[in-house]
Write a structure and sequence with these properties.
five-stranded mixed sheet, 5 strands, 94 residues
């Protein structure tokens, strides 16, 4: 998916700083990654969990599309914990 204008929530920026994740990392994941979960009930916009790889590490980006404003809102970003996710980082472990 080609990214539109990116808007970063304060929470996302704080987590990115803590975790050494750059804006370019997020852009790469959103452009080349795979949506692995959809949260259609989230408000004010449905969100999705995108899995991608950047600089050799897996990243999850939670993002929402505000189509009327042609922007993608980045809610949070993290490196998935291997003990919580399957080896391919696509599904949560039971």
């Amino acid at each position: 998916m080609a990214t539109k204008k990116l808007v970063f929530r304060v929470h996302a920026l704080g987590r990115m700083f803590e975790r050494g994740i750059s804006i370019d990392d997020v852009r790469h994941v959103l452009a080349a990654g795979e949506s692995i979960e959809d949260y259609l009930a989230d408000l004010p916009y449905p969100t999705r969990l995108v899995l991608g790889w950047s600089r050799g590490r897996p990243l999850h980006v939670v993002a929402a599309d505000n189509s009327p404003e042609e922007e993608t809102i980045v809610v949070t970003v993290y490196e998935p914990a291997p003990d919580l996710w399957t080896p391919d980082f696509r599904r949560r472990k039971p």
